[in-house]
Design brief:
two-stranded antiparallel sheet; Fic-like fold; 58% helix; 377 residues; 3-stranded antiparallel sheet; 15 helices; mainly alpha; Arc Repressor Mutant, subunit A; 2 domains
């Protein structure tokens, strides 16, 4: 099907409202739009560069965890949480009580991402994996009463205080299983010839239109993008997340999805999606370059410390995983005394590596500022 012939779906009369029933997507798509070809070529090129960086940097998984933390925080912000990166990087009990529910939602998303990426080694990207990841996402948080891990069994809606004034009403719950089965077939169909980035752009639109869960659809739909890029071989590591771009261009994102449903203009959405991939991949490459430069500076700093070098190196490796610490946090992991820990932190503060962030006389916390700020845009 050519993009210009695309039909998004129909409005179906339900009880006192009309839901939107999307057309199925498990078929070939073609287009005659040079802008899409140009953007697609650029997106594939920068993804390849990003993947090369991910293979080049030693212990890349440590740094990717910070990408995941940023993605979890930003993706959750789109859905209404009010946490910042420094909130997520400290233990729950050290947070103000009013922030703890949001903190837990972000932590659930981190766990869901890590779970899904790991399971891709054993399972294909499937509705089974999507459901299980959704269960992890909503376990024990505010969406826990909304059928975690199960496709919805009732009508939902987007925007508005009730279904009567909703901005969009997805298909009836009776249609969800069939539509999601079609989406899964589309992702794996080897007999249709659609480039991977075009395929996941269409699949993301379709997922958000189906809105298969009662809660968590936005987060799951954005995670679906990264999981597909890994499963299709475009990325070896989970190093690309689009939530930051979407959050900064939220109105344009929702408008692009709406234009598909109201004007059948799938090309407009695909171009928005490719722009998001290009911008985000470029930003990620710059972040990885900055990590390499920072690591070189840290290595040079350690070399100056003589007999303190081993403990200093151990602390730096710890900070890459846990960039906000107290003195007590490093005693056991580094196997050092409290006196040595205090001196290490003092040395790192004098060098400007650690910055005290509480202003307290006691229970001070210190941030690996130059590292954390690489992930705060």
């Amino acid at each position: 099907m050519d993009f210009k012939d695309f039909q998004a779906g129909i409005y179906k009369q339900e009880y006192q409202y009309k839901s939107f029933l999307p057309c199925k997507i498990d078929h070939t798509f073609t287009w005659n739009d040079p802008a899409i070809n140009t953007k697609l070529e650029e997106a594939i090129k920068i993804l390849s560069e990003l993947d090369t960086f991910a293979a080049f940097i030693p212990n890349i998984d440590i740094f990717i965890q910070m990408h995941i933390i940023k993605e979890a925080n930003t993706s959750s912000k789109i859905e209404g949480t009010r946490t910042e990166m420094d909130d997520i990087l400290i233990p729950k009990e050290q947070l103000d009580p009013e922030k703890r529910d949001d903190w837990q939602e972000v932590q659930n998303y981190i766990e869901a991402i890590n779970y899904a990426v790991k399971e891709l080694q054993n399972l294909p990207l499937s509705n089974r994996l999507i459901k299980k990841t959704h269960e992890v996402l909503l376990s024990g948080v505010r969406g826990a009463s909304k059928q975690p891990g199960e496709f919805r069994k009732s009508q939902n809606w987007i925007g508005g205080s009730s279904i009567k004034n909703a901005s969009f009403i997805p298909p009836s719950h009776n249609e969800v299983a069939d539509l999601m089965s079609d989406l899964e077939k589309f992702l794996h169909n080897q007999e249709i010839f659609v480039p991977h980035l075009i395929k996941i752009a269409i699949a993301h639109y379709q997922f958000e239109t189906i809105h298969p869960f009662l809660d968590g659809n936005g987060r799951m739909g954005r995670l679906l993008i990264t999981l597909y890029l890994i499963s299709s071989g475009l990325l070896k590591k989970p190093s690309l997340y689009l939530s930051d771009y979407i959050e900064k261009n939220k109105n344009s994102y929702y408008e692009a999805l709406t234009i598909v449903r109201t004007k059948n203009d799938i090309a407009h959405w695909v171009k928005f999606f490719l722009d998001a991939v290009i911008f985000t991949a470029n930003s990620s490459v710059l972040t990885f370059k900055s990590i390499v430069e920072l690591k070189q500076k840290m290595d040079a700093f350690v070399l100056k410390l003589g007999r303190k070098a081993q403990n200093a190196n151990n602390l730096i490796e710890f900070l890459y995983k846990t960039p906000i610490i107290s003195v007590n946090d490093i005693i056991e992991p580094l196997g050092i005394s409290k006196q040595t820990a205090n001196q290490l932190v003092k040395d790192f503060r004098q060098e400007g590596i650690l910055k005290e962030m509480t202003g307290f006389e006691r229970n001070k916390r210190f941030m690996f500022k130059s590292y954390v700020y690489l992930f705060i845009s």
